[in-house]
């Protein structure tokens, strides 16, 4: 019954099953790998051919779009020819003719050199003199800088539009609005194919044109992987708007920043692969049947000899060393059976010696157990006392008991004198011979053992080198010595010396046992010394506590005085903290300190100089860049301005994005507040000029403008108790803001009154009267170009002039 079960197990889980499974697995693996390689090669070939074909179509379409836009640019350029002698009527005639010739152009606008719209012509209406201000429009600013500018596409009533702006020789700008519906003509089914589709997106991923099967117009495809990768490494595979896998190619329209995508569903493109998969599956099934048949035949031929070997191994494992295995196959299995028979003979011989060796090892083990029991008793005895005077005699007595020696000496280490001093002795009279009371550490086995941390055994003192311990021990009648160091991580405590009257070696077991005993003894000695030190420190601590209680009473009196001073200082710090939010630190400290300045923040009227500055092009910059980058630019900008504001002791009125307003002569009055404001503005322009160069290297086109006005304003605190601000109310603040609006990049525009106050220190020029919003009469203004005064600081210059007076 047992043999039948073994045979069934052998067939299901033994070598038989393993051989069959291995052969079947090998055949299936080879066929599967071959099929996988064929499929991969076919897949790569099909994918490459499709991708190349779509890539050629995408490139051709991109070139046609680029050419069409270039043709439109040339046609629009015709109306920007030399403008001298041209009138509005001439421009209107040119624009009307261009609208008839170029159906893609839906509207034309003429902007003056200052950005005001003079003429607008479309297919329905003609508008003259609208004077709409395009001065800060990217279409005007970029065309004025570069000559030609393409606007970012947008959508009007669901249809894509863009614009082309061209600069005239006299500074005027023509803005042509382009209807992009003509892009659909380039994405017809004849160019794309039956199953594919194509579409054009702008730099933001919005669809500008699409084939019949493509995505809807104006749809945002920036989340698709192939569209998201257009600014990095291009992808050959992606997903469509429905989430299906597609093969994709893309070609850029470089000048416009558009991208043409040609795509085909992966499932349709790889249809030939399915037929190849079916053929490979049938081939693997046929190979599987053949492998099972061949594996079964080969495994059965090996079953009989392996079964005999297995049964014989079991009998040998059960202790039947007389059994021999009979296998006649004339191969490695027969040789293996012979090795089993030889092993059985050797086991029979070995087994006869095993009982004797076991008895010997049992005897040695019993002896080791006895030694461990003694060592345990010694450890408990040694550690039972915390009195060093009681610990040392216990250590010596237990050492004598363990070693069965004739005498034991314990030496303590004196690091100051570099000697070992005898502290305890058993079996020898330390009073009879004075020379062994103190041993030099450098010239004795005690010092050597302590340095090495290992015991030193001297089996015969007659043959040992001469040293003080040798003479003392020999005179006392001892002939062999074992020196065991008493050391731990903290240092050397001493040495344990075991003496025997007879010569002879110390066994390694005894030496090892004494090392363990020494470790326990060191622990006990350390504990005893620590207990003594703690007891001594406890007495000192009691004495110190009395002194501390006396000092505590004095500290209570000091604390009362200190609390009053801290409360006063905290009130002053809080006042400074609230003021420093909108004043220079030195001004805030002056007001907070009292000293006659309590009413500086009360409402009052005073003549002030107002400086207003902001960044040119910042609004369009924030619309086209990431918020994190915009915040980084603002931090650098505010940091550069803040340092100069505090340097010239200006009052920071408020931040409003890129706009900053600074007051001078309030709340602290300065006789030279106008010169402070102008000198600060010149330094600001230089500092921000360096920043704009750095920003331009990062792709940001920003400028910096400043406006300065002088006049009377009402000053004081406004807001609620939880949020107070120091503010100036009056037309002078509006004037500074309007002058700032009129300033171009890196320009400082001031009122004529400010210019008259600083004319002797600056290089500047008067500019045309300005018609400013909110003012009923033209404003006299001037431009500050540089500072002439050869001093480092305006405050120092003002002080020098005051001394001359």
Précis, in short:
The protein contains 20 helices and 26 strands. With 805 residues, the protein is of the alpha+beta class.
Mean pLDDT: 78
Describe the sheet with the most strands. 8 strands, mixed
Number of helices: 20
Q: Segments where pLDDT lies below 50 for 5+ residues?
A: none
Rough outline: flat
The amount of helix comes to 40-55%
Strand fraction: 15-25%
- Please provide the count of β strands: 26
Radius of gyration: 51 Å
Structural class estimated from helices and strands: alpha+beta
Distance between the termini: 131 Å
Explain what the structure shows:
- The protein has about 800 residues and is of the alpha+beta class.
- It is flat.
- β6 and β7 (about 175-180) form a beta hairpin.
- The strands form 4 sheets. Strands 19, 20, 21, 22, 23, 24, 25 and 26 form an 8-stranded mixed sheet that branches.
- The model has no long low-confidence stretch (mean pLDDT about 80).
Key words describing this protein structure:
seven-stranded antiparallel sheet; 22% strand; 20 helices; 805 residues; single chain; flat; alpha+beta
Outline the fold blueprint.
Layout lengths: L1 H12 L1 H64 L9 H14 L3 E7 L5 E6 L3 E3 L9 H9 L1 E3 L3 E3 L2 E9 L5 E7 L9 H4 L4 E5 L5 E4 L14 H4 L8 E3 L5 E9 L4 E8 H4 L1 H47 L14 H51 L5 H16 L3 E8 L4 E8 L11 E3 L4 H8 L3 E3 L9 H8 L4 E9 L2 E10 L7 H72 L5 H8 L11 E13 L1 H7 L2 H21 L3 E6 L2 E6 L8 H25 L5 E18 L2 E7 L1 H12 L4 E5 H7 L3 E9 L8 E9 L6 H11 L1
Parallel strand pairs: 22-24
Antiparallel strand pairs: 1-2, 1-7, 2-3, 4-6, 5-6, 6-7, 8-9, 8-12, 10-11, 11-12, 13-14, 13-18, 14-15, 16-17, 17-18, 19-21, 19-22, 20-21, 22-23, 24-26, 25-26
Helix pairs in contact: 1-2, 2-8, 8-9, 9-10, 9-13, 10-13, 13-14, 16-17
């Amino acid at each position: 019954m047992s043999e039948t079960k073994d045979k069934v197990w052998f067939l299901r889980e033994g070598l038989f099953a393993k051989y069959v499974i291995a052969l079947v697995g090998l055949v299936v693996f080879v066929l599967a790998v071959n099929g996988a390689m064929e499929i991969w090669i076919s897949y790569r070939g099909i994918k490459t051919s499709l991708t190349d074909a779509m890539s050629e179509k995408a490139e051709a379409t991109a070139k046609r779009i680029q050419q069409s836009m270039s043709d439109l640019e040339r046609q629009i350029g015709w109306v920007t020819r030399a403008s001298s002698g041209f009138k509005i009527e001439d421009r209107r005639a040119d624009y009307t003719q261009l609208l008839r010739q170029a159906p893609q152009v839906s509207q034309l606008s003429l902007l003056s050199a200052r950005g005001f719209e003079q003429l607008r012509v479309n297919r329905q209406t003609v508008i003259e003199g609208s004077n709409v201000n395009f001065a800060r429009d990217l279409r005007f600013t970029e065309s004025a800088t570069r000559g030609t500018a393409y606007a970012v596409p947008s959508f009007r009533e669901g249809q894509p539009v863009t614009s082309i702006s061209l600069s005239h020789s006299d500074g005027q700008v023509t803005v042509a609005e382009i209807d992009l519906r003509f892009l659909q003509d380039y994405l017809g089914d004849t160019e794309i194919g039956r199953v594919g589709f194509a579409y054009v997106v702008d730099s933001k991923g919005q669809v500008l044109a699409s084939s019949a099967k493509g995505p809807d117009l104006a749809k945002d495809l920036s989340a698709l992987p192939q569209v998201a990768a257009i600014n990095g490494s291009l992808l050959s595979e992606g997903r469509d708007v429905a989430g299906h896998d597609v093969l994709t190619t893309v070609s850029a329209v470089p000048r416009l920043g558009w991208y043409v995508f040609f795509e085909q569903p992966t499932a349709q493109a790889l249809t030939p692969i399915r037929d190849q998969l079916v053929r490979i599956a049938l081939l693997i099934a046929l190979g599987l049947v053949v492998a099972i048949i061949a594996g079964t035949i080969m495994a059965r031929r090996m079953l009989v000899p392996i079964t005999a070997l297995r049964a014989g191994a079991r009998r040998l494992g059960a202790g039947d060393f007389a059994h021999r295995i009979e296998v006649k196959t004339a191969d490695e299995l027969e040789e293996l059976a012979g090795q089993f028979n030889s092993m059985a003979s050797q086991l029979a011989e070995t087994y006869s010696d095993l009982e004797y060796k076991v008895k010997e090892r049992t005897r040695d083990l019993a002896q080791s157990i006895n030694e461990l029991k003694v060592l345990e008793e010694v450890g408990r005895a040694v550690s039972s006392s915390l009195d060093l005077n009681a610990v040392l005699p216990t250590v010596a007595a237990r050492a004598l008991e363990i070693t069965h020696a004739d005498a034991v000496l314990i030496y303590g280490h004196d690091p100051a004198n570099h000697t070992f001093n005898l502290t305890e002795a058993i079996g020898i009279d330390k009073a009879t011979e004075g020379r062994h009371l103190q041993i030099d550490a450098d010239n004795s086995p005690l010092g050597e053992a302590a340095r090495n941390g290992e015991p030193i055994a001297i089996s015969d003192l007659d043959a040992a080198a001469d040293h003080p311990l040798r003479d003392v021990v020999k005179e006392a009648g001892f002939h062999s010595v074992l020196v065991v160091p008493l050391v731990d991580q903290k240092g050397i405590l001493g040495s344990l010396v075991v003496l025997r009257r007879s010569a002879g070696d110390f066994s390694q077991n005894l030496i090892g046992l004494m090392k363990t005993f020494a470790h326990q003894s060191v622990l006990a000695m350390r504990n005893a010394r620590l207990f003594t030190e703690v007891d001594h420190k406890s007495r000192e601590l009691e004495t110190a506590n009395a002194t501390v209680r006396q000092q505590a009473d004095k500290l209570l009196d000091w604390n009362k005085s200190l609390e009053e001073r801290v409360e006063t200082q905290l009130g002053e710090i809080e006042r400074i903290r609230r003021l420093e939010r909108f004043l220079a630190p030195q001004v805030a400290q002056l007001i907070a300190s009292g000293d006659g300045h309590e009413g500086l923040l009360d409402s009052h009227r005073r003549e002030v100089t107002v400086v207003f500055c902001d960044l040119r092009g910042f609004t369009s910059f924030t619309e086209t860049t990431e918020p994190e980058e915009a915040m980084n630019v603002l931090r650098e900008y505010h940091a550069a301005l803040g340092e100069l504001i505090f340097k010239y002791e200006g009052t920071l009125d408020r931040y409003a994005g890129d706009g900053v307003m600074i007051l001078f002569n309030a709340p602290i009055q300065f006789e030279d507040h106008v010169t402070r404001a102008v000198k600060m503005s010149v330094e600001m322009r230089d500092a921000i000029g360096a920043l704009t160069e750095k920003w331009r290297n990062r792709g940001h086109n920003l400028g910096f403008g400043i406006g300065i006005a002088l006049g009377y304003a009402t000053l004081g605190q406004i807001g609620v108790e939880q949020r107070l601000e120091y503010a100036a109310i009056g037309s002078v603040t509006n004037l500074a803001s309007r002058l700032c609006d009129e300033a171009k990049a890196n320009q400082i525009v001031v009122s004529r009154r400010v210019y008259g106050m600083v004319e002797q220190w600056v290089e500047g020029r008067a500019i045309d009267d300005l018609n400013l919003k909110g003012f009923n009469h033209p404003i006299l203004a001037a431009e500050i170009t540089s500072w002439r005064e050869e001093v480092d600081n305006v405050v120092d210059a003002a002080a020098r002039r005051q001394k001359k007076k």
